[in-house]
Inverse folding.
């Protein structure tokens, strides 16, 4: 039987059914000619267990006879050492992909141990970034260069890029535990995070005063229209639009006041329920950053006044119900749209809702609060070791909360001293150390 050569293979014509051409020098090496005209190199062998295998090496044309011969020699050599090239190939095909890893990571870890917002972020990152780039690749095949490439591609959004690294690092650690990768081979290890530009925007006294005026106006008269129509579209705008006013969602305005007075996160306030409010001891139940459940948190008397006012017309188990459905709380979309209008007229266009929390933290530091108290006021988790020393005596935190409440009310032109203020009154707040440009970090 002659050696397989290009001339011999080219001369083989397809028939009504497949047939084989075998090499005369290397036993088991051959070509299968299919009725369609395709010609595939194969190698046939027996495993040590005596099982007959036929492994396809590749398509003739994509491989030359010499290249296919080398692959056949390698496969036959592996069988002599107890390996099964076909079983290895099938195993590789069945090996989990990055898509499999991320889905299991989300189901078995993120959904059980992280906050809903983190779950949302991980799913978005998987669908928009990780999946399209790495999803179809095998978990065991991912190298550090693959991670570097996708991380570098997000260089313009360093925070997003670093979050992606965190999610992938955890997922690959779990993949090792699931035995989807060898131990200590996490490809994220050694990839340097980008430097993030921290944003610590907070309100100056002047900005706080303007915001107070606009909030009052929003609650009473509503805010003027913001007319963006120009050209031909402007003809559809009512006459004298500058005289027209539109109401601002009442629950949104109340929520913004509560955010300013507590330093809480947006979702914590809009999802607050009446069962979380204790008027007798002056607390509201707020969750920790890691979503470990709500626990009582002391707040200022100004906060309790806002809640008492809301309680007069209670129509839902939510403190801030949705206008169209009392069984749902006011939505983030309504909050954001209301805030855009309010900050426009308060002349603070760069201030986000979350910056109200930064404002509370900054005022707390200026009021003399130490890191321990501020971490509990804002419920940060980076000083968790101090939790064991915190009892149900809320007095230090209450004093700090009262000091911040006084500062906020003074800034909005609403604070009026009463006799009650002389009891456990906080120290005089120092003037903020900044210029009035509203852009301090």
């Amino acid at each position: 039987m002659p050696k397989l050569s290009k001339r011999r293979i080219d001369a083989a014509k397809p028939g009504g059914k497949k047939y084989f051409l075998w090499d005369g020098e290397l036993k088991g090496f051959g070509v299968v000619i299919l009725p369609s005209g395709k010609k595939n190199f194969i190698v046939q062998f027996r495993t040590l267990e005596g099982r007959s295998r036929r492994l396809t090496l590749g398509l003739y044309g994509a491989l030359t006879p010499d290249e296919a011969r080398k692959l056949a020699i390698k496969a036959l050599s592996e069988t002599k050492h107890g390996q099964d090239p076909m079983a290895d190939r099938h195993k590789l095909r069945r090996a989990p992909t990055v898509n499999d890893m991320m889905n299991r990571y989300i189901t078995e870890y993120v959904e059980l141990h992280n906050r809903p917002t983190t779950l949302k972020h991980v799913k978005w990152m998987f669908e928009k970034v990780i999946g399209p780039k790495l999803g179809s690749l095998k978990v065991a095949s991912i190298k550090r260069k693959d991670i570097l490439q996708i991380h570098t591609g997000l260089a313009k959004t360093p925070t997003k890029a670093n979050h992606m690294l965190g999610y992938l690092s955890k997922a690959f650690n779990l993949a090792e535990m699931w035995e989807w990768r060898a131990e200590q081979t996490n490809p994220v290890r050694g990839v340097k995070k980008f430097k993030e530009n921290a944003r610590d925007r907070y309100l100056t006294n002047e900005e706080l005063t303007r915001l107070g005026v606009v909030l009052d106006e929003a609650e009473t008269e509503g805010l003027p229209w913001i007319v963006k129509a120009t050209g031909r579209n402007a003809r559809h705008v009512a006459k004298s639009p500058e005289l027209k006013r539109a109401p601002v969602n009442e629950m949104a305005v109340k929520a913004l006041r509560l955010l300013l007075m507590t330093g809480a996160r947006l979702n914590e306030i809009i999802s607050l329920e009446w069962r979380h409010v204790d008027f007798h001891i002056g607390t509201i139940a707020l969750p920790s950053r890691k979503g470990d459940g709500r626990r009582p948190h002391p707040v200022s008397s100004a906060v309790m006044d806002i809640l008492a006012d809301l309680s007069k017309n209670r129509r839902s188990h939510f403190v801030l119900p949705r206008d169209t459905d009392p069984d749902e709380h006011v939505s983030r979309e309504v909050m954001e749209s209301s805030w855009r209008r309010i900050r426009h007229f308060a002349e603070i266009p760069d201030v986000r809702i979350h910056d109200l929390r930064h404002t509370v933290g900054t005022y707390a530091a200026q009021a003399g609060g130490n890191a321990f108290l501020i971490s509990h006021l804002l419920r940060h988790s980076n000083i968790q070791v101090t939790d064991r020393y915190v009892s149900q005596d809320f007095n230090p935190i209450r004093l700090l909360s009262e000091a911040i409440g006084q500062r906020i009310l003074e800034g909005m032109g609403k604070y009026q001293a009463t006799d009650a203020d002389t009891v456990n009154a906080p120290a005089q707040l120092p003037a903020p150390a900044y210029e009035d440009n509203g852009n301090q970090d």
Summary: The chain has three domains: 6-94, 98-177, 205-422. The CA atoms of residues 29 and 43 lie 5 Å apart.
